[in-house]
Every structure is written in C-alpha cells, then in structure tokens.
C-alpha cells in the first residue's frame, strides 16, 4: 500500500473501514486548520456520531507542523476524495465571495468541505445571546448588568454599510484598495467603559459615515452594484443586526468582546466579594470564603474559547444541516 507522508488518503481510510468489518463503525477523518479548531469541530461532529459512524478530527498533516486553511484543503484535495475524508475550515470571506476566487469556489462547491458560514470560530464564541452565560461562568455571579445582545446589534448596524463596501472591493478583486485591515481600523471602538458603553459605537458610526462618503465619491459608478450586493448579503445571512458574526473573528474577539467582558466581570467579581464581606460572621469565615471564591473564578479568554452557547445561531444550524445532508447522501 502506498504511504503518504503528509496526509492520509481517502482510499486508505475507506480500506481500513472495510477491513474493520460490516458491523464496525465507519471512521471519517476531518482535517481542521489549527489546534483551537479541534475542539470546535469536535462539538459540531460529535452530535452525528452513532453506532454506524464516528469522526476523527485532526490537523492536516502528520509529517510536519504545517497548519492553516490552505493546508487543510490541500490535504483533502491531494487525496483521492471520498466520503471517508472531509475538510472543516473557517469561512473567512470565502463564503461571502461566492466563488469569485479559486478558494472561495472550492469552499462553496466541494461537498467534502465544510465551513463555518460566519467568519471564524471566534465569531461563534462571541455569539451575543451566550455572552451573559460566559460572564456568569467567569464570575459565578448571575446578576445581569449589561445587555450584550443590544450592544452587538447596535455595533452591527453601525458597521454594516462599510462592511458591504469591504466585501464589494473583494468581490471586484480590488481588495487592495480597501482591505480587511483598513476596515478594522475604521470599526475600532476604542476603550470601553460601562459608564458610557455606547460612546465607542457613536464614534464608529461617525467614522463609518465619513469613510462611506469617501468611497462613494471615489467609486461613483458603484451605486447599483453596491445595492445589489447588499441585498445578496442579506440573503446569505448578513443583516444589519448580525454583521458582527461576519467580520474578522480575531478583531471581534480581542478588540470588542473581551474588553467588554473584562469590565463586566470585574464589576460582578467585586460585587460578589462585597457580598461575602458583608455577610461574613467573623474574619476567619470571611478569609476562607473569599479564598474559596477566588479559586473558583475563571479566566475570561479560556472560558470564552470554550463557549458553546452558539448552538441555536442560524449559521450554526445551517452548518449542522450540511453535515446531516452529507451523511445522508453517503448512506449513513
């Protein structure tokens, strides 16, 4: 049997499945981009495991440490593709590009490639309806002091017009004129304060409005195509209220959501500590209770990375349906 140093061939996996006998579960290898993706895709695929099939989620190569989207896709394409091997990747902008580039075409049309629909797994981890639960998991305090859903809805509405322009340039293959980095600089909210949480969004609205007017002046013939793209993006799931799910995941995670969670959780932790101080009968009880609470409090970033409260998000439901249809068409 021919050995492949850098990837497992689909024929090899299929043959191994046959050797295991009719009653053995079928193994499907799922290539992912990086270490962080393993946990996410395990949560996606484990729901579909049963007495007939199971998934093995792994990095794209075994012969070296090469990682990334391109590596995951190439490991799949180099093998003789069959229903025993899939690639699971972040959508990035490729879903919204709808086949304009070769990678986008592969992601949107290859039945053995599954993508997040939203930009990346970080966007799911920052799913607004789940963020209160994350704050509770970190602080062990269920007091709701901030409306994450309203904030990210307002943020999305503020950045939506400029986001359409960003995709417009990528669709026109002129992305160098307005890159993701350029877009991220405009939608930067600055420091976050619970005393005036929407100050950053007001600033973003002003910057977005100014940039949109500039792009309109520089591209006077783009009005109709921009409007057509806006309508198409809405059909793909990008609405003015959900745009945060489709911007660069690291930007959303590091520059928007984590700073908010830090402020919120700091308040919740101090609130719980004051409660312990108030209720403690004597100093020894106070010391022991504060120590116990301190040891139970979690760090924000690891907790957010393990957040799975996105399961009812519409893009995630579509992703699940893709896996379900793949298994159905494979006769599993």
Characterise this structure.
By secondary structure, the chain is of the alpha/beta class. The chain has 15 helices and four strands. It is 57% helix and 6% strand. Strands 2-1-3-4 form a four-stranded parallel β-sheet, with helices on both faces. It starts with 9 loop residues before the first helix and ends with a helix. Residues 1-7 have low confidence and may be disordered.
Task: Indicate the topology.
Layout: H1 10-19, E1 26-31, H2 35-45, E2 53-58, H3 69-78, E3 85-89, H4 94-97, H5 102-109, E4 113-115, H6 121-125, H7 131-139, H8 148-171, H9 180-186, H10 199-218, H11 223-235, H12 249-279, H13 283-296, H14 300-305, H15 314-329
Parallel strand pairs: 1-2, 1-3, 3-4
Question: Notable features of this structure?
Answer:
332 residues, alpha/beta, four-stranded parallel sheet, 15 helices, 4 strands, flat, disordered N terminus
Short description:
By secondary structure, the protein is an alpha/beta fold. It has 15 helices and 4 strands. α8 packs parallel to α10, α8 crosses α11 and α12 runs antiparallel to α13.
Main β-sheet: number of strands, strand sense, barrel status?
4 strands, parallel
Using the alpha-carbon principal axes, give the shape.
flat
Q: What class, by secondary structure content?
A: alpha/beta
Treating each run of at least 4 consecutive H or I residues as one helix, how many helices? 15
Low-confidence stretches: 1-7
Gyration radius (Cα, Å) is: 23 Å
Distance between the termini: 27 Å
Beta percentage is 5-15%
Average pLDDT works out at 90
